[in-house]
Design goal:
This protein is α/β, with parallel strands linked by helices. It has two domains: 149 residues, Aspartate/ornithine carbamoyltransferase (Rossmann fold), CATH 3.40.50; 162 residues, 3-Layer(aba) Sandwich (Rossmann fold). A five-stranded parallel beta sheet has the order 8-7-6-9-10, with helices on one face. Strands 3-2-4-5 form a four-stranded parallel beta sheet, sandwiched between helices. A two-stranded antiparallel sheet has the order 1-11. Helix 5 links the parallel strand 4 and strand 5. It is globular. The two termini are 35 Å apart. Bound molecules: phosphoric acid mono(formamide)ester. Phosphoric acid mono(formamide)ester binds next to helix 3.
Length: 337
């Protein structure tokens, strides 16, 4: 198992199966705090610097929420224009300075491998919140947490599942990271549905092949969605040369109630890293599925808080001190405690 304390979290390639199990186990122990049954101030006095140089709602806010739920303070820098990177400062120098102000850093950046470059200059742990089209390791962990939790309803494990990944598999960093994590498990059938031009990169497919998984690559939904989990993704417009180029692929694999009823199993769990593109020309995941209990997208986003709490606790070495720092919740909570 990897050593968590003091370590950067940059890529899912760092994890073995035991390390993933450890993260998911600690994440489960965060449920009472995230659901406000208890509070915990084990990170009181600690500072997170949340550096987001690319748009984000879920990742940025849930990193901040996770840290605050453990009692820490959050400082945010949003957008490169508000950073001295625009004056030509290097990622190394920025990291060396910022890490002097914080105990841990969460970072998103549009360039591939930029977060690793930043981490080289950092004196505190750095967590990758997405680096271009490369990776999104914390998303993959929360996706895995969600798959495990959803499959628990059907007495199934991650091993032996049928999983469909659909959409822009070339640019979608979440599906790259999730596929690599799934390579740690056994006997999975992955069906990769995408336009030919947006297929999963070869190195990710090789990792799945090498793990002994069955991989089906197709550009058709027909006959290919009979799975335990259907993971839909957005056309990653920001990774194309132009909006016009991205437009060529929008709306090709829209999932709606009619498609679901025609092509999926009764209980296929629908996931999506979000944001979903709800513009009419895309509508990749229709709101007419919102009442379907197998639509896990909002539970999935919520699980991001648990997983990020776990990573903070592990990286800062407090995962076994949670109960010592527990308190009662003193306010009315709509979360049902
Ligand atoms: N899933 C995800 O990364 O969402 P955001 O871009 O809103 O952070």
């Amino acid at each position: 198992m990897m050593k968590f304390q003091g370590s950067h979290i940059l890529s899912v390639s760092q994890f073995d199966r035991e390390s993933v199990a450890r993260i998911l186990d600690v994440a489960k122990r965060m449920i009472p705090y995230a659901s406000r049954q208890k509070r915990c101030n084990v990170l009181e006095g600690a500072i997170l610097n949340n550096l987001f140089f690319e748009p984000s709602t879920r990742t940025r806010v849930s990193f901040g929420t996770a840290f605050q739920l453990l009692g820490g303070f959050v400082h945010e820098t949003v957008g490169q224009e508000s950073s001295s990177l625009t004056k030509g400062e290097s990622l190394f120098d920025t990291a060396r300075v910022i890490s002097g102000y914080a105990d841990i850093v969460a970072m998103r950046h549009p360039a591939m491998h930029s977060v690793a470059e930043f981490a080289e200059g950092s004196t505190v742990p750095v967590i990758n919140g997405g680096d271009g089209a490369n990776e999104h390791p914390t998303q993959a962990l929360l996706d895995l947490f969600t798959i495990e939790a959803e499959m628990n309803r059907f007495n199934k494990n991650i091993d032996d599942l049928n999983i469909v990944l659909m959409g822009d598999l070339k640019h979608g960093r979440t599906v790259h990271s999730l596929s690599k994590l799934l390579s740690l498990y056994n006997n999975i059938h992955l069906t990769l549905v995408s336009p030919k031009e947006l297929q999963m990169p070869d190195h990710v497919v090789s990792a799945l092949d090498n793990a002994g998984h069955k991989v089906t690559i197709t550009d058709s939904m027909v006959g290919n969605l009979q799975s335990d989990v259907l993971y839909q993704t957005r056309i990653q417009e920001e990774r194309f040369a132009s909006k016009g180029e991205a437009d060529m692929y929008r709306g090709h694999f829209s999932l709606n109630k009619s498609v679901y009823e025609q092509h999926c199993k009764d209980n296929t769990v629908i996931m999506h890293p979000l944001p979903r593109d709800s513009r009419p020309e895309a509508n990749e995941l229709d709101v007419d599925l919102n009442d379907n209990n197998n639509l896990a997208i909002f539970r999935q986003a919520q699980n991001g808080v648990l997983v990020r709490m776990a990573l903070f606790a592990l990286a800062l070495g407090v995962e076994d001190k949670l109960s010592q720092y527990e308190r009662e919740v003193t306010w009315f909570s709509s979360k049902g405690n």
